[in-house]
Amino acid sequence: MANTRPLRVLQISQDGHFLFNTDAFVSVLEKVGSRPFVLYSINGRSRDGKSYVLNHFLRFFKRTDENWFSSQLPQEFIWRGGRERVTSGINLWSEPFFETRNGREIGILLMDCQGLFDDQTTPQQNAIIYSLSNLLSSVMIYNLKERIDEPTLQTLHFYSDYTNAIASADDIDGKVDPFPKMIILIRDFPYFHDYEFGYHDDHQCPL
Ligand SMILES: Nc1nc2c(ncn2[C@@H]2O[C@H](COP(=O)(O)OP(=O)(O)OP(=O)(O)O)[C@@H](O)[C@H]2O)c(=O)[nH]1
Ligand SMILES: [Mg+2]
Fold it and tell me: What is the pTM of this model?
């Protein structure tokens, strides 16, 4: 596919203003057409490997054979090590992917978000990024390192209240359910001797 790339749908200007690029967002939706679609976004703390994960998704959706996992990981949603923040604003992959599920073709969109809690972004800006990610996506992956703890849950609660406030604002027509399905993705999980990898019984989650 020619010129496929992340499109900047949300930009935060130097003076802290949020600019939403509706044309870019709509251009991707138009490629989905009338098919049902799911939009996956990834959110979480800055520098914890979010963009890296989305490149695994890209590699999977672009697969040409069963050995996709051994092919080189792309560098499409830019990822790299170091202390400096990499992703800014919100980026949407320019092309939907299509998969057939239960005989129906569905579009899959991928969205990468600026990390929370870096040293340049205010708490209010973080809340807005998180809320927009909530409002735009059907599945939000919340990326964490090693464990999920009480401060993280408190933060998610706080940001979710913010999302609710936006969704119930007077100037929004109709009733909007702002909350996508949420998947908590824990990286470098240290207790793999105690718990199997992959999905397992909810009651066994080590909270
Ligand atoms: N330890 C560890 N490092 C990882 C993992 N996944 C990615 N990394 C590394 O983490 C670094 C940061 O990856 P990015 O994907 O750029 O992180 P990010 O969360 O998108 O960063 P920002 O866009 O700055 O918020 C890279 O050097 C990755 O190789 C992981 O599961 N464990
Ligand atoms: Mg990133």
Answer: 0.92
